[in-house]
């Protein structure tokens, strides 16, 4: 949007302003919004191009091994990972608005794909990808981007940590070489402890551990502090950085070469290898519902399939959340357009499904790579996509050589750094309630599945917001005003926020209980109320009238006045300026008022909130002091 | 509470203030709160006593026929209605806090009882009453009274109209003499139209219609305008009022006498009569889970019984809602203590269940009677309870003479005036959205059951509140300040309410897009933010720093300062007074500031809300004027 403004401004200086018609402006704005490439391509220069090529290739070196690993996590053959890794890249170049996002298989999508299709064939995965794309389109069309605003950072953090832990534990099983059937994270973890003594120090174990150590060491390599004062040192630093960034690719190449060595010598490798992979590019075909046991599913049947149906709601929400979270983490300029991300993801998934893709979204780990590689525009995705296509065309015959332990190591080292320890310290200081939300979301995700945990976490935070409407802070102040001859004491009741139905009883109670002197309700913070509140305020006004006590509404908006009138309020005393208020309190005519000098003394002050419901009554002493 | 204050105040003037210990005060406060009789009995005088006797007896004359009718509605024998009508009255005298409430069977409770136990024996109804009482106690103990605050007037209105319509339609079947099986309101209504031509002009029909006409006529009787200038006219007016108020009792006596006439002459009455009724008071016994087909239920089994389990959550909530709604409608002084009402209802139902009661709560129709009879304290309930006990002791042998059509007429005329037409007009003027809530709740109640409709209605209104957190109004103002030599132009961004996670992106977007001049964020309306918002604001501050644009937080609270710091904000520019703000904008030292005269001009003003997301960009013309 920022960029858009700049471009439009340039245009406007060339042409005269009035030539541009209103609707032209609007169409262009729409196009800029929904096809972001039209916006940034105008400023694209050679330096951007170079930066994007470097970033794109670096990204590709992470994308390819990760895709293969994530396909294993999703429970499908390795080629599906690569099938998912190119179309999204190409489409996102055109429709994407966040340059750091790298569309493709992700840990989250793979985990959810596995959860929903573990007992189904890969055809279901492709159909799911298509339906997910359609739902994302509908979400974009109905502008449901705002839904993501309701997922707070503590919930995201707990959710993300939970997915990381689930993936690590699921991969540890393979690396430790223990065998058992399990369902869910908790069961997995328990059985892992029970079976820990059965750990076989086999080739898988040795390879897995070595790969993890290698990957973590390589990750740290780029952080070695080398001053860039000489050209040599500069080159060294850049080489180290490149080695570090392409560590996933390197480990896959190294371990595959070892496996190739064994195969070449006619021996069996001492570690498990990947299954044989179908060669070449995927065929282009419209996704059709799969046939199982001679029964071809209908689209409608899929929508009510007990295992399947939830996925097409859960996955789109989480995909959009992931993209927006990436944007929030990396973007420094401009703003995030969640609705546009929904459209972009939708096209990525729908077109991806024509090439046998599984559901895709932006990946956190790759976004960090993209950011560190100095990506300039989403065009970087083009190069990583091309790299994936090349890998599919030329490298698939060698994919069966990739050891499974290597893929597990790639997965573990990718997600272990997503465990969000850092959030605990600030939350401990700022708000223990929010820390509880993190822990609660984490535990629920681990115990009952990530999507349920996310949902419950959102519910808890939203309920907290709902609760806030019921317990506004209400300041009650006793104020003395003197003029030459008289003194008037009144209570000023000031709710800190709008008063809607959950809070109105509390406010009325405060006003009724505040004391036997005139009460002034300060309406600064609410320009209107709902019918329930209006009814209650009308009753309050009647009560005060019956009691013969003065009740003045201060700074009431004309809208609120009308609402009260329609809700049956017969007599409303209100003042809009200090002068009006004082003259009402002293019982003067307004005209007389201007002559008289007033002195305002602010007396006993107390802030009442839910915990301290009746401050003036808290103890007899205090009450008396308020009354005397 | 008001009364409490008054009493305490009197005490304080007698004793010296310091003699009363803090804890003594608190214990007394507790007792006054939870056993309200201890409070009002101190001021009870002869006039109160007389008023309560009159009101209590009048109330009894409505309570007895209504109880019999409501037991028919609940699908149990007539004696259960009376069994439910005395214990609650006695208990509420002690624990009740709303003088207009008359505990006993109500249309709402009967309807729900029928819904949950239509296929079960009356033993289940008694056990349900006990469990409902227990749940009400727990709700009171955990101070869940606030839950009722979330049920707004439009939802209550839709719900109440729906229950009235359901009851009327269910009773019309009996009066029209058509026979069909139906499930739910919609089905009932359709079949009623289909079978309308089968209407038999039998004795039931004639009697039912006559009774309805009689009851409506009698209801209007008390509204006849008679001046009270002579004693005769006064007596006439009071007689008419008494006749009108005891109309339910009268019609039952009259029609039963007709039936007795037929029986006495050895003929069969031309209309259906009530089944034979067990005579005398109910035995006192602890409610035990019922035995069905030689299987004695366990308490735990009841809690998971498919038909039964929902009732013990739904009925307590609705019972408390009913009592609070009555309080809101009739009370003119003091405030409503929903938690205490939960305790009172709990004791009424638990003790009631020892005497075979069905679930009870306060009834709207009877409260109107109590109010019109000039009730002074809950003691009136004692007299209506005694009247019910007398009826049970002496009149049960004659109960079989009451014609069923009379009971239907009593029910219909009781609920027909609960249909809330009046709310439509003000809501049409004030808020169409709230009118939609009424209609939506009504339709959902009629289509899917009243408790589901209530739940959905609450959800809709609460979601609307949640949505409000995401779309705060944000004022953006461009302000020019001059001093002798310089001019500074800045944008003042002022969110109208607290900024929590759903709104923070919107606020940040507004600030980022507001323009290239210094931006001042007015934090008047938020004293603190949550972690998500703090994180986003920190990013915002960093973005402005990177852009080299000034961003000043105005009137920031120390708490908010700390939160931002802990959330990772490194540099925060803030001002707490106009002086500080202006000197920051002009780049002066604070010390220099006091000498310089300033002139403030408020420039272009616009209010941005969700519908008008980018006001400065709305059209090129407008944007330019804002930029130049």
UniProtKB/TrEMBL annotation, chains A, B:
Gene3D superfamilies, alphabetized: STAS domain
Which CDD domains does the UniProt record give? STAS_SulP_like_sulfate_transporter
Q: What's the protein called, per UniProt? A: STAS domain-containing protein
Instruction: Provide the coiled-coil residue spans.
Output: none
GO cellular component assignments: membrane
Q: What parts of the sequence cross the membrane?
A: 49-68, 119-142, 201-218, 239-262, 308-330, 342-359, 379-398, 405-423, 435-467
| Subcellular location, record wording | Membrane
Q: What is its main location?
A: membrane
Signal peptide (from-to) = none
Biological process GO annotation list? transmembrane transport
- Keywords (A to Z) from UniProt: Membrane, Transmembrane, Transmembrane helix
Which membrane topology describes this protein?
Answer: Multi-pass membrane protein
Q: Which InterPro entries match?
A: SLC26A/SulP_dom, SLC26A/SulP_fam, STAS_dom, STAS_dom_sf
Could you tell me which residue ranges the STAS domain spans?
A: 492-568
């Amino acid at each position: 949007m920022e960029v858009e403004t700049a471009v439009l401004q340039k245009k406007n200086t060339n042409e005269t302003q009035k030539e541009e018609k209103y609707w032209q402006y609007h169409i262009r704005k729409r196009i800029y919004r929904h096809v972001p490439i039209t916006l940034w391509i105008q400023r694209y220069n050679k330096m951007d191009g170079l930066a994007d090529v470097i970033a794109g290739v670096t990204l590709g070196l992470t994308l390819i091994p990760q895709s293969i690993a994530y396909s294993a996590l999703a429970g499908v053959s390795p080629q599906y990972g690569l099938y998912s890794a190119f179309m999204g890249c190409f489409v996102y170049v055109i429709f994407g608005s966040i340059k750091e996002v790298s569309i493709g298989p992700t840990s989250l999508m793979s985990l959810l794909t596995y959860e929903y299709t573990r007992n189904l064939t890969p055809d279901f995965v492709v159909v799911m990808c298509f339906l997910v794309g359609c739902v994302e389109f509908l979400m974009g069309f109905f502008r449901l981007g705002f839904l993501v605003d309701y997922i707070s950072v503590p919930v995201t953090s707990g959710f993300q940590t939970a997915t990381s832990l689930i993936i690590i534990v699921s991969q540890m099983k393979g690396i430790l070489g223990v065998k058992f059937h399990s369902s869910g994270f908790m069961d997995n973890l328990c059985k892992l402890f029970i079976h820990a003594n059965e750990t076989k120090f086999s080739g898988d174990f040795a390879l897995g551990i070595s790969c993890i150590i290698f990957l973590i060491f390589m990750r740290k390599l780029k952080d070695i502090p080398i001053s860039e004062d000489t050209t040599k040192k500069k080159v060294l630093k850049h080489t180290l950085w490149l080695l570090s960034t392409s560590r996933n690719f390197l480990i896959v190449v190294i371990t595959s070469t070892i496996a190739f060595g064994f195969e070449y010598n006619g021996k069996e490798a001492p570690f498990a290898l990947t299954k044989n992979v179908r060669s070449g590019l995927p065929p282009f075909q419209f996704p059709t519902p799969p046939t199982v046991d001679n029964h071809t599913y209908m689209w409608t049947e899929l929508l009510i399939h007990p295992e399947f149906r939830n996925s097409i709601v859960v996955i789109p929400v989480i995909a959009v959340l992931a993209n927006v979270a990436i944007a929030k983490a990396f973007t420094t300029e401009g703003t995030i357009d969640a609705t546009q991300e929904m459209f972009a993801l939708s096209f990525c998934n729908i077109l991806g499904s024509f090439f046998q893709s599984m559901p895709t979204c932006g990946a956190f780990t790759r976004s960090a790579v993209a950011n560190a590689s100095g990506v300039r525009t989403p065009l970087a995705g083009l190069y990583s996509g091309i790299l994936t296509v090349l890998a599919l065309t030329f490298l698939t015959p060698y994919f069966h050589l990739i050891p499974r332990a290597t893929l597990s190591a790639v997965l573990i080292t990718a997600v272990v750094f997503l465990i969000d320890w850092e959030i605990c310290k600030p939350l401990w200081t700022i708000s223990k309630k929010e820390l509880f939300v993190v822990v609660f979301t984490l535990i629920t995700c681990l115990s009952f599945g990530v999507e349920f945990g996310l949902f419950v976490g959102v519910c808890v935070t939203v309920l907290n917001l709902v609760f806030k409407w019921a317990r506004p802070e209400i300041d009650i102040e006793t104020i003395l005003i003197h003029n030459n001859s008289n003194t008037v004491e009144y209570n000023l009741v000031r709710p800190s926020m709008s008063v809607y139905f959950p809070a109105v009883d509390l406010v009325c109670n405060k006003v009724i209980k505040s004391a036997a002197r005139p009460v002034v309700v300060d309406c600064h913070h609410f320009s209107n109320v709902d019918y329930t509140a209006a009814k209650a305020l009308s009753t309050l006004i009647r009560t005060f009238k019956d009691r013969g006590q003065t009740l003045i509404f201060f700074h009431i908006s004309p809208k609120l006045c009308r609402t009260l009138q329609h809700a049956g309020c017969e007599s409303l005393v209100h003042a809009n300026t200090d002068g009006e208020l004082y003259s009402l309190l002293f019982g003067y005519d307004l005209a007389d008022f201007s002559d008289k000098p007033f002195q305002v003394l602010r007396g006993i002050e107390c802030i009442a909130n839910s915990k301290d419901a009746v401050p003036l009554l808290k103890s007899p002493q205090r009450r008396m002091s308020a009354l005397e």
